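for ur thesis appendix - Amino acid permease. copy paste whatever u need, i formatted it the way the template wanted (i think)
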Amino acid sequence: MTNRPPQQPSLDDSEHLEVLGYSNSFDRSMSLWANFALGFTYLSPLVGVYSLFALAMTVGGPPSIFWIVIVGAGQLLVALVFGEIVSQYPIHGGIYPWARRLWGRRYAWLAAWAYVWALLVTITAVAEYGAGFVASLFGLTVDATSGFVITLALLVLALLINFSGTRWLSRVARIGLAAELIGVIGLGLYLLIFQRKQEFSVFFDTMGLGGENGYASAFLGAALAGLFLFYGFEACGDVAEEVENPARRIPRAMVLTILVGGVSALFSFGGYVMAAPDLGAIVSGEEADPIGTILESTLGTVGARLFLVVVITAFISCVLSLQAAASRLLFSFARDGMIPGSRWLSKVSPRSKVPTNALIVACTVPALFCLLIWINADLLVPITAFAILGIYVSFQMVVLAALRQRVKGWKPAGPFSLGRWGIVVNIVALAYGIFAIYLLAKPGESGVVLTDWIVLLGLGVVMGTGLVYMLLARPDRKSDAPSGDAIAVADEIQRRTGAIRTISDK
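the 3d part is after this line
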């Protein structure tokens, strides 16, 4: 598979950072399982299924469950590419430093600009969706004002936990992981085994969707059911400098996030379909809250309310993980002098060892978005759609950059390697990503120009403003941090670990 010895020694964490041009500034207290929990609670199959089950069923019916398999397989390929990259570059920020070291400063600026805004918007969307469940638990009437207040409370709660440091982030992430597993696998199995009201053949029943145009267009329209689920695994790499032995552990955590997340989502989605007392009403859109109805009919009123506690725990953990990922990206961006306010954003608390100022931004900007949604509730759906597209675009910019380096001769030098299969996986991952972007960016067919093109317009505004700022302010000229050095770094790592011999060794 590789040209390295089977038991090749790897660099210790400090020496690896030294090779990459940085020194230790964080507390490496995050274990493999805590890192996996962070990525899993960000990916959050419970949040994803809860948020989009009704939409997927009304557009694509029960067969829309297969999008979980399709997108899961595609994103697993992306995760494997990311795994090789982070194994060579286990540094904070994920998408930004990977794009910088694989391609260059300008390219990294655009990739990170898209990704940071997509992350901030995702925090907004998850907190907004979670507010409704909090209101239901306490029997509150959900209106614009109460939703706004609850959303702000969720954002501030996550911020306070993040302020406390990496250990508390790890603890709450593990609690969120337990809530996710109970909420998706546990409940899904219970519904499938004890509350089944449908036959398994229902997953091949289009239930008349698609009409005269055939079912293919309806099935493609339901792609969001999977596309919204499978991102978040990259957050495992965002906190690389807080993980012990990250070059080995983070790739494993990423793969685990995809595999466990996919299985969890299948159990959850499948369980709701099989336990639905009136599937026709859900598919026709007559049932406004299908999951709530299913839970009431299977768990009873008390059981459904107890399950709401599990759901809210998952939402809080998801917001927490998103804030952590966004703050580390902002820190990494600022550490290299690539963003306005770099000196302020790159400060790390000497007590908690977290980038507190970047965390404040990761809470404040989503709060401002929430204010806009409070003014105009119709903004929530396009905001959510833009977040997904922005993240997929930034993902594929990294995948493309990795393929470019492979063509130039780069052989990833981290302890996690795909060997000769690396370039094959890279090419297929890029092809999948382009297909996913097409599905997300494809204009709607409502006939209303703004509605049909809002997602592409949003991406255009973000990328356009980023490009204008880059050309006018030239942040790339203000940064002397390393870039485009994938081959040189790989050679140095191999030299230090003895994977290749120098002239003096002969």
